[in-house]
Every structure is written in C-alpha cells, then in structure tokens.
Amino acid sequence: MKFKLDPSRPPDEDDYYLGVALAVRRKANCTGNRVAAVIVKNKRVIATGYNGVPEDMPNCLDGGCLRCSNPGGQFKSGTRYDLCICVHAEQNALLTAARFGISVEGAHLYTTMQPCFGCAKEILQAKIEKVFYLHPWVPTDVDPVMDAAMKAEYAKIIGKLKVKKLDFDDPVATWAVTTMRQAALASDKNPDKKTPPKTAKKKVAKKKSRTSPR
Ligand SMILES: [Zn+2]
Ligand SMILES: [Zn+2]
C-alpha cells in the first residue's frame, strides 16, 4: 500500500508515522539530502528531527556550512564530511530525546532516508529496535577501495538492526533526494528533451548536407 494524503481513510501505523516524518522534513535545511526522522515508543512519537546546522547558527541554505556550500567546488563529491557541521535528522531525533531525558531503548525510528553510515552506528548503539525508511541511502563517489570497505562495514552495522524499506509515494522526492534532484536537473538540461526551434532545425539540416559527401 502506498502513502496517500487521503483524509477519508484512517492511516495505518507506517502511514501515520512516515506522514509525520514527511511533515517534519519540510523544515530540513541543507543543500544536500532533505531528511526527517521520528522516534516512536509505545505508539507515541517521542522525538522528531530534521537535518541542518546546530541551533542558533546560520542555516546551511544560507551558506552556514562550508562543506555543503562548497565554494569553488574545492571539496570533491563524497569527501570531507568530517568538515560538515550539518546534523543529520536521525542524530537530531536521538539528541532531542537525550536533551529532554527520554529513553529511546526499544523504540522504532521512522526516517525519510535509509540511515547513513554514521547514523546507523548511532541508532544501533542507542538500542533503537527497528528502523523504517522511505528512500535508499546512496553514498556518492567515494574512492573504490574505500567504497568496498565502507560497504562491508555498513553491512555489519545494518545486519545488527531490524531495517524495513517502506513503499510509499513521495510527491517531492526530487526536492528531497540529491541524486534524484541532480538527475531531474540533468534531464531538464538535456537538449534531446526539448523541441529545437525552427531556425535550429534548418541549421542542423544544412550542416548534414554539407558533411554528407565526406
Ligand atoms: Zn548542509
Ligand atoms: Zn545520517
């Protein structure tokens, strides 16, 4: 069953909690993926989080994070995350629970994106019992040796968690997921997708006839 904003039908558990996460995600403030997470215990939402810089700092979308704003493209894709000051949605949800003294042991976590390497470790160590996610997490462009090692280590961590992918529609997936946003932008720029103006068609035809005798 897919997530639908249908007020005539009461939502089931996954629909309800993921719906809350999708509402929280509107606050996400990062130039990269836009993610939100909710922690649920005994059928109650006990904490929420979305990704962005720590409180009372200039927002990531306003250039607050040097790694994310990447001036002059100085940080290669997939590198220097140790410089990034953005706090991930799952981290923010766990930290909110810590800040207000709420135990998360045995709780469920709903996130709009599969936890990354760092978040997966923290979720495991916080003793979250089960993780539900919407979009897969795709690490970008790490070098091949690192990539293989990271996949193996990630599998070790994820193997210790109960993880389930949810099959719901995301009406703003291209806004939320960097890889989908980049793919959408690339296809917009793709000249094959646009009908060329009449003058351009004539030029192409001329060029063809000129080069055909060769
Ligand atoms: Zn950021
Ligand atoms: Zn993360």
In short:
By secondary structure, the chain is α/β, with parallel strands linked by helices. Helix content is 38%, strand content 14%. It has one domain (13-183): Cytidine Deaminase, domain 2, CATH 3.40.140.10.
Which strand order does the major sheet show? Answer: 2-1-3-4-5
How many β-strand runs?
Answer: 5
Radius of gyration of CA atoms, rounded to a whole number:
22 Å
Tell me the distance between the termini: 59 Å
CATH architectural label: 3-Layer(aba) Sandwich
Q: Give a list of the ligands.
A: zinc ion
Tell me the β content. Answer: 5-15%
Major sheet description: 5 strands, mixed
Question: What's the CATH topology name?
Answer: Cytidine Deaminase, domain 2
Query: Would you identify the regions where 5 or more consecutive residues have pLDDT less than 50?
Result: 199-214
CATH homologous superfamily placement:
Cytidine Deaminase, domain 2
Which whole number gives the mean pLDDT? 86
Categorize the overall geometry: globular
The CATH top-level class label: Alpha Beta
Domain unit count: 1
| Helix run count | 8
Structural class: alpha/beta
H and E string: HEEHHEHEHEHHH
By oligomeric state, this entry counts as single chain
Helix content: 25-40%
Any overview of this molecule?
- The chain has 214 residues and is of the alpha/beta class.
- It has one domain: Cytidine Deaminase, domain 2 (3-Layer(aba) Sandwich).
- Helix content is 38%, strand content 14%.
- The chain is built from 8 helices and 5 strands; from the N terminus they run H-E-E-H-H-E-H-E-H-E-H-H-H.
- It has helices spanning 13-24, 66-69, 89-99, 117-125, 144-159, 173-176, 178-189, 198-211, and strands at residues 36-41, 44-50, 108-113, 130-135, 162-165.
- A 5-stranded mixed β-sheet has the order 2-1-3-4-5.
- Helix 4 (117-125) packs parallel to helix 5 (144-159).
- The longest helix is centred in the C-terminal third of the chain and has 16 residues, at 144-159.
- The model is unreliable at 199-214 (pLDDT under 50).
